[in-house]
Amino acid sequence: EGRRIAGKIFTKLNLRAIKQADGVFAITPRFEKILLNYGVKPGRIYVIYNGISFRDNRNIAGKEDHAGFNIINVGRLEKVKGQDLLLKAFKAANLPQAHLYIAGSGSQEADLKKLRQDLALTDQVTFTGFLTQAELRQLYRK
């Protein structure tokens, strides 16, 4: 119960701060609509997508040969990021020729590794931990 109350207070404080900000970044048009519904003025919302910086990754050496294909998730291992749903979807997709790499660290790491084991995906899912940009480029080659 206490967490729910704290969460509501945090949300209200965030909304107040967002409404008073000169500008707010939204990572998708859908999130932009959510901000509009909360009363943020349209001229203050800027949609800037997350993604791979192609400029930084133009010089990635050629792709490594391998059978099948790889799926890569890069981000904090936090509940809000939804890697638990990713693991469940990966299992449901039943892709024996695929390998999932999860790059990042965070408070959900132990729970996600347990879920990987519970879903019998230990051979198909690799947790890399935090990676530098150079290490990420190596992973992208796969």
UniProtKB/TrEMBL annotation:
Chain ranges of the Glycosyltransferase subfamily 4-like N-terminal domain: 5-52
Protein name: Lps biosynthesis protein
GO MF, one example: glycosyltransferase activity
Pfam families the UniProt entry points to: Glyco_transf_4 (PF13439), Glycos_transf_1 (PF00534)
Domain Glycosyl transferase family: residue ranges: 69-141
